[in-house]
Amino acid sequence: MIRYSYLVRLDHRAHARQQKRQIVFGLVLGWIMTVLGAFNYFLVTGANDAIWHAVLIAGMAILLVTVSVPAAIGIIERPWVAATRWIGRAVFATILTTGYFVFFLPVGRIMRLWRGNHPFYSWGDGSPVAGEGWVSKDLPAEMRATASRRLPLLAQPFVVISFFVRRGQYLFLPALIVLLLLGLIMFFVQSSALAPFIYTLF
Known about the structure:
Number of strands: 0
Strand content: under 5%
Mean pLDDT: 77
Shape: elongated
Distance between the termini: 49 Å
Structural class: mainly alpha
Helix content: over 70%
């Protein structure tokens, strides 16, 4: 009985999330079409009145259906979301691939030229004095204090950047900043209710 009631509540929550997504989609799409159609039909001279009048009517119809029967918007919302997810994957893959070849690959090349391309070594009598390998390290107290605090999302990139600045690893900073910015942009875009419309811009 408990398992059955849990599954029922789970199904209700999934249905509520789906309905909310469809309502947001229908309202945004309907208002965009209504505003664009009305602006071009009533205010823009020389516009194709037949096309923009049809866009205006379609936008108002979508708004009416969204308010009255939200589930009916799923006929448009499901293929639209499927297409935009495919576009989103392609866009993000292109951005990450470009970022790798533009930022990370050159940094790696420069570091190999600067430090050399060292493989793993083994010593019979102990490692050289200047050598550094798998040794125990104790993080500074301020880093442990920083890690123990839960920082806001927007403040966390600055903590990561300061980690590399304190160690003098400035060569990583350009690639690191670009990677953090891309991560934040992708997070906000994917978590936004307007994501299906943002992807279509690409």
